[in-house]
Design goal:
Distance between the termini: 113 Å
Structural class: alpha+beta
Helix content: 10-25%
Oligomer: single chain
């Protein structure tokens, strides 16, 4: 699937097939990038087109091809047609194909690479909307501005990667074509293809590893008897006789260790009871596991006992507080409302014929 950005489609082909893109990411509003596999010695070409010509703002577009951060070539095309860049014109009637090449390494400490190593193995296509100017038969000549001849130290982190190279010069014809001029100085869309050998992409986890299908083992088929041979009925094998005497060489039953699971409160903790002795690494690990389980159990039981003690202390403190409230000792809630001592007046019973005053006055 070609990369799409701002009404442009761009992808890279090799051996007549589109190279698959992995980890497509929109870096910003004008840049999109991805990873593609590359194979040293293989030629490639860049294919660019307009997604929807109806919305094309100009007569055509320009595509500049950069490799390892350097401008390699650039071509223009009408907005209704597809642009294919597969070579660099190095003379009036000569061109060199675009190809992948492995970075040359050396054991010398000095490096002859005159480019930023962070841009090694990067193909960048800058797209510009352009206006048609005039027709011409004089093609634009480009210098061989690639870095395939540069060497790096064999211990460099870019050793083993691929870069863009140019093939041998071949004769080409000159045809009449339109000259386009870009409208803006800044690209309208940038497509970045980070290419590396397939093994590097798999090792880095960028693409899944391809596993070869396992070959099924062919079982030998039994030979069929010839027609001339006589068929004999299968003979029954005699049943093995049961031993009548005890054989000392008879295999003894091996007792396996017993694993018992116990529940501790709300969490299950395995407690392993083994009858094996610590004779090897496996027995040592088993004993260590038992010790850890026992320690965990003891810690849980100790924590539970401490919690129960705190709960009991809290209950006793509450009992003391309730008792203090009932007895009216200082510090309790009863001290806020002190008891009032009332005087008990005697009841006077009037004699017969006396008048009783029922008023409240003393």
């Amino acid at each position: 699937m070609p990369l799409e950005l701002h009404n442009f489609h761009v992808h890279i082909e090799s051996d007549g097939k589109e190279l698959p893109q992995y980890q497509v990411k929109h870096v910003n509003g004008t840049t999109v990038r991805c990873y593609i596999p590359s194979e040293a010695g293989k030629c490639y070409r860049v294919v660019a087109t307009v997604v929807n010509p109806i919305y094309a703002p100009q007569d055509g577009f320009i595509a500049d091809l950069l490799a390892e951060g350097k401008l390699v070539t650039g071509e223009a095309m009408d907005y209704k047609r597809t642009l294919i860049i597969h070579s660099v014109r190095v003379a009036q009637k000569a061109a060199r194909n675009l190809a992948f090449a492995a970075i040359q390494t050396t054991d010398c400490e000095d490096s002859t690479a005159d480019y930023d190593i962070s841009k090694a193995g990067v193909i960048e296509v800058q797209m510009f909307w352009a206006q048609a100017q005039r027709k011409t038969t004089s093609p634009q000549i480009w210098t061989a501005n690639t870095t395939d001849a540069a060497t790096v130290n064999e211990r460099s982190k870019i050793a083993g990667l691929n870069v863009t190279s140019l093939g041998e010069s071949k004769a080409v014809d000159t045809t009449e074509q339109w000259v386009f001029r870009n409208v803006r100085t800044e690209p309208d869309a940038i497509f970045q293809f980070y290419h590396q050998p397939l093994a590097h992409l798999e090792a880095a986890g960028i693409i899944p590893k391809t596993r070869a299908p396992l070959a099924l083992k062919q079982q030998p088929q039994p030979e069929r008897p010839l027609a001339s041979q006589k068929r004999t009925a299968p003979q029954k094998r005699p049943a093995p006789e049961a031993p009548t005497t005890t054989d000392n060489t008879k295999r003894r039953k091996v007792l396996k260790p017993i694993v018992k699971m116990e529940k501790i409160e709300d969490e299950n903790t395995p407690i392993i009871e083994s009858t094996r002795e610590a004779d090897g690494p496996g027995e040592i690990e088993a004993l260590e596991a038992e010790i850890r389980a026992e320690r965990f159990k003891i810690e849980r039981m100790a924590a539970q006992e401490a919690l129960e003690r705190k709960i009991a202390s809290l209950a006793r403190a509450r009992d003391r507080q309730d008792l203090a409230r009932r007895s009216g000792t200082p510090g309790s809630n009863s001290s806020r409302h002190p008891s009032v001592k009332r005087e008990i007046k005697p009841i006077v019973v009037p004699l017969s014929g006396e008048t009783v005053d029922l008023t409240l006055d003393g």
